[in-house]
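Lay summary. Proteins are chains of building blocks that fold into shapes, and those shapes determine what they do. In this project we predict the shape from the chain. Here is one chain we studied, written as its sequence of building blocks.
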Amino acid sequence: MNDLAPLLTPEGRALLDAVRGTAPADELAVATRLRRDHPAPLVSAALAQARLRQRAVAKFGTEDADRMFFTPDGVEQSTRASVAAYRAARLKELGVTSVADLCCGIGGDAIALARAGIRVLAVDRDPATAATARANADALGLAGLIEVREADVTEVDTSGHDAVFVDPARRGGRGRIFDPEAYSPPLSWAVAAARTARVAALKIAPGVPHEAVPADAEAEWISDHGDVKEAVLWFGTAPGTVRATLLPGPRTLRSAGLPDPPVRPLGRYLYEPDGAVIRAHLVADVAAELDGGLLDATIAYVTADTLRPTPYATAYEITDQLPFNVKKLKALLRERGVGVLTVKKRGSAVEPEELRRKVKPQGPHAATVFLTRVAGAPTMLIGAPAAV
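And here is the predicted shape, written in a compact code that computers can read:
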């Protein structure tokens, strides 16, 4: 059932309460019992919504997910609440009081904006998606700040708003779309729409080529707990600026326009930059902060002789450097009683699980092995997280 209306009735809401937290193994028994007193399609819709809410907890938290409504695409494509809250806070700091949220989806960003005290026009052309966004605004008590409109975003007048936020669809019938001009709407349209507002933010895929960033935009890459979530093009802020923002925090690293770091021999410590730092091409800035260099000109691992705390990279103390050789690695791990093995790779075709199967780690100790290149040569580095 794509129509949310039956679930919004007293009977539908009671069913949603009844099926909350239902485990997949229990669904058949629960459905059989509930269908004695309720229409079968409504029971199926309630169970489907319960499954979506369980999936949404990772993005929205239990309290909100248990009250919100979702579509399968909406759960997959919606912004993580922590990222949406960060962006809303930044817009608030920029003096924004109203936002036209174009391609609003199920309303995740609109919710964060409204909670920041910003008035929102949330627009989506899909009827079921717009209905879901409207239901979410009502469910969370934000209907007074969020107007949901079912319309083609290219036909919406945004002139009455301080800012524009655009989140183009980056998935099609065949999966993820990598060409920004194949987004719906295309990135070029979104950029043109952004330039009509005092402030604008365009959410794009983190893999966007840097050369695709307009000269009058600020580019920001955002990670949450080390997981890169998105890139944002900002207009009306700091044209030409490139930065990486790490959540929670937020902690922001801005480009200083440094040249590529030098390649140097392995030091005592290896630093793995956060994914947002790498995507933003700010490894040189981290290397400068650490007084370090690269192991290889093409690999984003920084090495240094001293241990310095930084939020922008994870530090490991390296104990061994070996040419790539599975038998030697297996013998070393056995000698040291390593049973818990973390495998990281960058610049290697070997899959971590494949290596783990071959070395068969056993023992009470833990270690981390890096499969990478050092000055062009396939190399294995063994160590452990450094105590900062």
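What the prediction tells us: The longest strand covers residues 313-323.
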